[in-house]
Amino acid sequence: MSLFFQKTKKLESQIDEYLDLVIKGGLIFKLGIKCYMENQTEEFENYLKELRKIEERADDLRRNIEVKLYTRTLIPEARGDVLGLMESCDKVLNITTDNLLEFSVEIPQISNPLKHDFLELSESSISCLENTVSGIRSYFKNIDAVRDYVTKVQFYKKETNKIAERIKRTIFRSELELSHKIHIRYFAFHIERIAEQSEDVCDRLSIAIIKRFE
Amino acid sequence: MDISIWFFITSGLFLGWSLGANHAVNVFGTAVVSKMVKFKTAAVIAGIFVILGAVISGSGTTKTLNELGSINALAGSFSVALAVGISVLAMTRAQLPVSTSQAVIGGIIGWNIFTGSPTDYTSLSRILFSWISSPILAGIFGFIIFKIVKRYLHIWKIHLLRIDTYTRVGLIIVGALASYSLGANNIANVMGMFVSAPLFKDLNLFGLTSVSGVQQLFLLGGLAIAIGIFTYGRNVMETVGKDLYKISPITGLVVVLAEFIVLSLFTSQELESLLLKLNLPTIPLVPLSTTQAFIGAVIGVGLAKDPLSINFKVFGKIALGWVIAPLSAGIITYVSLFFVQNVFEQKVINPVPYEISKSVVVKLNDLGLETKKLKDLVGKRFYNKKIFTNELLSRAPYTNDHIYMIFQYSIVDSFRIDTAKIAGFVKDGSLSMDRFSSLKLKQGKTFKNKLDFENSLFENDTVWIATGKKLDDKETELLKSKIGEAFRIQSKIK
C-alpha cells in the first residue's frame, strides 16, 4: 500500500517540477531579453542555451507524466483536462524559447526609445505565463484560487495587448525603413503571443475547474 | 449417494451464478464505471472475498431455517432455486439490479401457494417495507456524506492525485468488505437448501485445519457467485453507472460508503449487541436490501450534486424490476412445481403432520384466538395442509395470520432431550451450569410438539425467567432456539 502512495507522491513532484521549469523558463526569457537590449551578447546566448535545455527537460518530463497518467489509469475523470493543460502550457514554453532563438538568429535592430517598451512587453507577457502556472498548480490543490489567477492572466493579457499596440504604433510612425519596421513589429507580435497562448491555457483551465466542481 | 442430488444442486449453482451477475454492481459497480478499478481486477477481488465470506462466515444453516427451511423436499428446493435464478437472470438481462433475497421470498410464497402452506405475511411486509426504507435511508446518508466530503475536500486542499489514490484504495477496501458480506449473507439463498444433503465429507488438511462438508458446499456456491460476477457482472453496471446517473470516482466512493454504513448501522445484530453491552441506546433494526440501498445511495448523491442529472425514467424501470422480480419468481416457481410434480413425478413437499394438542389450544386461547370450535380437532392428525386449512376455516373465519399461527404451533415435531448434544454450549460459556442442570433433570424425555417442548423446558423454570435486561433476554432467546435445534430429531431432506 505504501508503494502505491510513494508512486503518487513521485508523480505529484514530477508535475510540480514540470511547472517549476515553465516558471524558470519565463524568468530566463526576461533576463535574456534584458541582456539583448543591453547588448550583452554572450550572456544573452548563455540564457538562450539554458532556456533550450529547460524546454527539452520539460518536454521529457511532460511525456513521462502523460505516460504514467495513462498506463496507470490515474484520475480517469480529469486525465484529459490535465493532459490538455500540460500540452498547451508546453506550447507557451515553446513559443518563449522560439522567441529568444529568433532574437539570436535575426538580431533585430531595436532603437533605444523602444527598448524600454520591449522590456515592459516581455515583463507583462511573462506575468501572464507565471499566473497561468500558478493557476494550474491551484487546479491540483486549491481549486478555489484558480479563479483569481485566471482573472490576473486576463488582466495581464490585456495590458500586453496595449503595450504591443503602442510599440507597433511607435514603429510605424518612425523614420525607419519599411522592411525594418516590419521586422521589429514581428518581434513585438511574437512576444505578445506568449500572453495570447497563456490566455488559451486559462480558458481550458476555466472549463476544467467547472468539471472538477461537478 | 443419490446421484440426483447433484442434479438438484445445479439449480442452486445457477441461482448463485445469476446472483453474482446481478449483485456485482452493488460491490464494485461504481469503481468500475468510474474507471478507477479495471473490471477484471474488481471481479478477481470480489470473487475471492465472496468465496471467503461464504466459507468463513456463511450463515447458511440458521438463515435457511428462517427463509427456506419450510421447503422440505429437494425437488421443491430445486424448483424454487431454479425459478428465482431465472427471474434474477431475466432482470440481469434487462440490466436491472434486484434483490435476490426478495426473489427467494417470492419463490417461497409460490411454493406455499402450490402446496397449500400458509404464508408468513411478515416476510411479505418485509419486502414492501424494504422497498421504501432501503432507498430512503441510503439516499439520506448518501446526500449527507457527499455534502460533507465536498466541503472538506475544499477545506483540506488535497492534491488531485492524492484524492485519486485515496478514492481508489477506499473503493477497493469497501468493495472487498461488501463482497465478503455478499458471500456471507447470500450463500444461504444459494446453497442453504442442500446443507442437510450428504454431499461432502469433512476434510482434514494435513492435520492443521479441517474443512467441514458444509464449508465445501459453500465453497462451491461461492465459486458459482464468483463466476457470475466474472462472466456477466458487467451488464448491470452500465445501467446504474451510466444510464441512471453518471458516476465519478468520488461519488462512486460516497455511494458504496453510504450503502455500507446504512447496512452496518440498521441491519447489524452484532452492533446492536455491542451497543447493549455498552449500555448505549440501540439503533432500530430495519429490513434492508443491499441492492435497494445501493440505488438509494446513487439517487441521494445525485440529488446532492445535481438533481437534474438523475434519469428518473431509469429509476422507475429499476423500481418496477423490484416488484417484478419476486412476483415472477413466485409465478415461475408455481409453474415449475406443477411440471416437476406432475410431469417428472418428483415429490415437491414431504408431508408434515399437524395436530392440535391441548397445550396448543391453551396457547391459542392466550393469544386471543377463537378456540371453542377447535376442541373436536384435538388429537386428530392432518397430513395435507389444504385439508387442515379447510377444517380450520369451516370452524371460524380465521385470518391468514391466525392460520399461519395455528400451523406454527400445531406442527408435529420430535424432540428428545440429550444433554450430551449441548455440552459444547457449556464449554463455550453460553450455557450456565444452573441451566444445564435444570435441563439434565429432563434427560431422555421426548416431545412431539414444539410448544410442549418449550413449555416443559423453559416456562416453569426460574433459571429461564426473563430478567428485563434487553441484552440478557436476547441472548437467552437465542440460546433457547439453539437448544431447540440441538434436541430436534432431524429428518433429512429427501
Q: What would a concise description of this structure say?
A:
With 214 residues, chain A is mainly α. In chain A, 89% of the residues lie in helices and 0% in strands.
List how many beta strands of chain A DSSP finds.
0
Unreliable segments of 5+ consecutive residues of chain B: 60-67
End-to-end distance of chain B, in Å?
Answer: 12 Å
* Quaternary status: heterodimer
CATH homologous superfamily grouping of chain A: Phosphate transport system protein phou homolog 2, domain 2
Summarize the helices and strands and which ones pair or pack:
The complex is a heterodimer of chains A (214) and B (494).
Chain A: H1 2-37, H2 41-71, H3 79-106, H4 112-141, H5 143-172, H6 178-213
Helix pairs in contact in A: 1-2, 1-3, 1-4, 2-3, 3-6, 4-5, 4-6, 5-6
Chain B: H1 3-33, H2 39-57, H3 60-67, H4 74-93, H5 100-115, H6 121-156, H7 160-191, E1 203-205, E2 209-211, H8 213-232, H9 234-244, H10 249-267, H11 269-277, H12 290-305, H13 312-342, E3 354-355, H14 358-366, E4 381-382, H15 385-395, H16 400-410, E5 412-416, H17 423-427, H18 433-440, E6 446-449, H19 450-459, H20 470-487
Antiparallel strand pairs in B: 1-2, 3-4, 5-6
Key features of this structure:
heterodimer, A: 214 residues, mainly alpha, Methane Monooxygenase Hydroxylase, Chain G, domain 1, 6 helices, B: 494 residues, two-stranded antiparallel sheet, 20 helices, 6 strands, globular
Structural summary, described in words:
The complex is a heterodimer of chains A (214) and B (494). With 214 residues, chain A is mainly alpha-helical. Chain A has one domain: Methane Monooxygenase Hydroxylase, Chain G, domain 1 (Up-down Bundle). Helix content of chain A is 89%, strand content 0%. The two termini of chain A are 29 Å apart. The model of chain A has no long low-confidence stretch (mean pLDDT 94). With 494 residues, chain B is mainly α. Chain B has helices at residues 3-33, 39-57, 60-67, 74-93, 100-115, 121-156, 160-191, 213-232, 234-244, 249-267, 269-277, 290-305, 312-342, 358-366, 385-395, 400-410, 423-427, 433-440, 450-459, 470-487, and strands spanning 203-205, 209-211, 354-355, 381-382, 412-416, 446-449. Chain B has a two-stranded antiparallel ribbon with strand order 1-2. Residues 60-67 of chain B have low confidence and may be disordered.
